[in-house]
Amino acid sequence: xxxxxxxxxxxxxxxxxxxxxxxxxxxxxxxLKQLWLAELLGVGQSAVSKRLRGALPFTAPELMMIxxxxxxxLAELLGxxxxxxxxxxxxxxxxxxxxxxxDLPTSRL
Length: 109
Known about the structure:
The protein contains 5 helices and 2 strands; from the N terminus they run H-H-H-H-H-E-E. The protein is mainly α.
């Protein structure tokens, strides 16, 4: 039997895996180990391992701490995940935003 919650759970799991993949990639680029991340976040190495496998999600404050410690923006840390739905939002994609501003319908009175 399936429930309406399964797609949301799958989406959450996919997001966790993508975020953890980006964090792992940044750690590798900088030659950093899980122990460094555990100390930064104030958690045990087991908790970091779960986060890096995508089994436990990173929190927003944790991601901000990681980006800050790596001296990169949160968008850089998350990579293409940030704009996966619409990779070019300023090019007039389906976001309703063109040229960096929201296009609202005008009404005539």
